[in-house]
Write a structure and sequence with these properties.
Elements: E1 2-4, H1 7-19, E2 24-29, H2 35-44, E3 49-54, H3 74-84, E4 88-90, H4 94-97, H5 116-119, H6 123-138, E5 142-146, H7 150-162, E6 168-172, H8 192-197, H9 199-213, H10 219-231, E7 236-245, E8 259-267, E9 270-278
Parallel strand pairs: 1-4, 2-3, 2-5, 3-4, 5-6
Antiparallel strand pairs: 7-8, 8-9
Bound molecules: pantoate.
Pantoate binds at residues 28-30, 57, 60, 127, 130-131, 149, 152.
């Protein structure tokens, strides 16, 4: 597994690969990889070469969030990447990505206004800026993002459309533990008791999904049912439960078309997100 830390070196490698006619798949991550990331890598194997970036992006964390404590282990990540079949890891230092007088940001409105954009102000400005930079540095043909971060996926698709970025964005399904908890690097923060409590998120969302499958069309009733189940768990505190259009992330008054049912819930101090999408076209 080749580990590259500088923008100059990754550009040289990518340029050689392109000269040889190779297509490049890109999986942007913040590291501490799990089977969810590995499934993105496996999807990216449809390209000739797969690059994984590992960069805990300081500008997408707000004050008091877990930037300093976010789990980091490059040796473990190298093993996970090689197991999944990636060719190269790009792991720049923060000073390589952000010069002292860095001052250009990608600021989106619309799909970033609600859900995580509302409860984590500035988060998507950080995500869009770093993903845009990574796209410019790596210049892949296709980039792969998990549907667990459904709003992020919608935001990246919008950015690529709006800024005419010539990269195909591929969304990949949520990967879950056997008991239903969505895989996340942040699951490592959970104590044994919190890990059990976290199951309430998928349980509540599954209840909501069943309501929709049984014909419920009223988003308020579904949100209210999901909320009641989560509120029964003493270790859980809801950040948001929302039902929105999956592409525009705007509120809907009826379950119709491509709908995202999204939850962000604190289990103890750990904020977890999960969702399902219904009526996908
Ligand atoms: O989803 C993530 O891990 C991050 O938000 C991303 C896309 C790598 C940008 O830092």
């Amino acid at each position: 597994m080749k580990l590259v830390k500088t923008i100059k070196e990754i550009r040289e490698i990518v340029s050689e690969w392109k000269k040889e006619g190779f297509t490049i798949g890109f999986v942007p991550t913040m590291g501490y990889l799990h089977e969810g990331h590995q499934s993105l890598i496996k999807n990216a194997l449809e390209n000739d070469k797969v690059i994984v970036s590992i960069f805990v992006n300081p500008i997408q964390f707000g004050p008091g969030e877990d930037f300093a404590t976010y789990p980091r282990d490059i040796d473990r990540d190298m093993e996970k990447c090689s197991e999944a079949g990636a060719d190269l890891i790009f792991a720049p230092l923060p000073e390589e990505m952000y010069l002292n007088d860095f001052s250009t940001f990608v600021n989106m409105t619309g799909p970033t206004d609600d859900l995580c954009g509302k409860t984590r102000p500035g988060h998507f400005k950080g995500v869009c800026t770093v993903v845009n930079k990574l796209f410019n540095i790596v210049a892949p043909n296709k980039a792969y993002f998990g549907e667990k971060d459904a709003q992020q996926l919608a935001v990246i698709k919008r950015m690529v459309r709006d800024l005419n970025i010539n990269i195909e964005i591929i969304g990949c399904p949520i990967i879950r533990e056997k008991d239903g908890l969505a895989k996340s690097s942040r699951n490592t923060y959970l104590s044994v008791e919190e890990r059990k409590a976290a199951l309430v998120i998928n349980k509540a969302l599954t209840g909501g999904k069943n309501m929709i499958q049984n014909g419920e069309k009223n988003p308020d009733k579904i949100v209210s049912a999901i909320t009641s189940v989560i509120n029964e768990e003493p270790l859980a505190k809801i950040d948001y439960i929302k039902i929105v259009d999956a592409d525009t992330i705007s509120t809907v008054s009826e379950i119709n078309g491509n709908i995202l049912v999204a939850a962000a819930v604190y289990i103890g101090k750990t904020r977890l997100i999960d969702n399902f999408i219904t009526g996908e076209n």
